[in-house]
Amino acid sequence: MRALRTELLLCLGLLALVAAVYHRIPQADFFLLDDSRYVIENPNMHLGLSWEGIKWAFTTDRGGFWIPLTWLSLLADAQVYGLNPGGFHLTNLLFHIANTLLLFWVLRRMTGSVFKSAFVAALFGVHPMHVESVAWITERKDVLFGFFWMLSVWAYSRYMRKPGLLTYLPIAFFFTMGLMAKPMIVTLPFVFLLLDYWPLGRLAKEDFSHPGKKALFVIGEKIPLLGIACAFSTITFFLQQQADALSSIEALSLRNRGANALVAYATYLFKTFWPFDIAVYYPLPDAPAPWWTWGGALALLLLVTAGVFALKNSKQYLFTGWFLFLGVLFPVIGISQSGPQAMAARFMYIPAIGLYIMIAWGVPDLLARVKSKTIILAVAAIFATLTAAALGYAQANLWLNGISLMTHSLKITGDNSFGYEIMGATSLSKGDNEAATKYLEMALELNPNNEKALRALSSAMESQGKMEEAIKYCERAVEVRPDYVTTISALGILYLKSGNMEKGRECLNKTLELPSDHFTTSLNLGTMYFLLGDHENALVHFKKAISMNPSLHQAHSYMAAIFLEAGEEEKAIEEYQQAVKFKPNLPQVHNRLGLLFAKKGQARLAAMHFDQARNLDPDFTDATYNLAYLLFQLHSYPQAQLLLQEIIQKSPESADAISLLELIQTRKQPGS
Fold this sequence. Notes:
This protein is an all-alpha fold.
């Protein structure tokens, strides 16, 4: 009973510790690095857990992976929270808390050591290297596959106690679920072999040099799991090839990959023990790592490996911990290069457990003959945990702001075009065109052919009314990627808005020749037809765009304008309401809704929308005047007068406001 109470208190302590480190994460916004592709600009998020959503999750290769379980969890969040990032962040955090508690429980079950298991779980819960997996919505993959990794290990420990088909099937089930969350779990059969050596004790030291029937059986029982792993690995390899996520040998030679992998292993090891200056993005080096860098990393890894082998009989936990770190990390170490990063903190979500085990069991052994070692170990464990928690808290807070996060990252890794591109896109999404322009220009200085930065800078210029510059940057983006429909259609819109109808039509014709089923392309095509006055075709493409992504406020606004011109005011109101539902901060749309409701005699609704427009943009005098005129019609002269005086103070030459104010003053005179 006392032991159970101790374990319960430790669980509550772990929960409180993790919650303290991450309690501000639900306040964070989306991070435009991949969150846009996974959630914000994913046209299928609106499907939720409908049959269509489930079917899409199991058939899509979006992102270059087959991860239906991850997609289902994101779809569930979208159904519950809409596109509120706080809900997505909260789910990530809940999974991480569950993983922390599961790790403690499973390790305690296998080793019998309560406090060492709690220490490993505490480091896992708060270490700064794990923040990326928790705070980044895109990395739902990590916390979800970690959840099924823990459950698989628990099922395996249960199978050890009572072998049989009924206890083996849960292992295969959880393993398969994990593979459908993130293929990195593919090394789990290898982890089971390590656990067989320590702490489960199914493999003795003699089994390595003279494998007998027992060892062959232990290995053989992993074959079904290896078969599942091979099938998923094949699927992942082909999907990443189709998505161009795998670097070719020409782009990065096998020799260079090997050198970078050695350096990455050593860096992961160093960052675990010295968790400062953790970046969100580590770019691949332009040149191969110098021989002394990768040579030093190789020497370090060989030295530790030799020490682990030398102590494998007396300190078996070192063998399991070290090779858990090396083996689980191997699929993402860079031999088969996936993505533009040299390394990533998120890849250590599970591999770091091996190093924590080495610390938790190794340090007490080192101090075995020291007097008062219990007190020393307790103080050291508390100090290490609280230090990691403080650093984890600081790292988590960086994720509250995408600009500060990338600024921090660039200080660590040095200037790179990709980092400034993300900062520029983030600033642009927040309406800070000045900052966006600065960052995007810096991105282009480092890489003039950064097509995404060129497109974003074009948008920033358009927002500032600099149409010639917007066209120039968009034209350069088309030169870099001449077959990208979205950019060509964006250029067409710019031509049409600037009055160049001939070039606008050329872009329109070119986009119609290229295949695309992306909602942005349909939105752009609808916009081009709208600007050309072809409302019939514009509606076709706007409806197509909305069918793929109902949250496109631009499409709803354009459709409302078309309906309004056709005299269909009810439909116009419906579309404008959809626009502000998905993007509430649209002062122009609120103003139009106010005018439409005022025309229908619904003064309360009209006043509400005029007020919202004014609050969103205090300099939007049209909305202020419309509200003043509405109040005038309702004979609320004092309130109308105050609003008109406000307009005249800002714009002394506002003829309409002056006339209406004079009319009010006339009516307020006695006898009038």
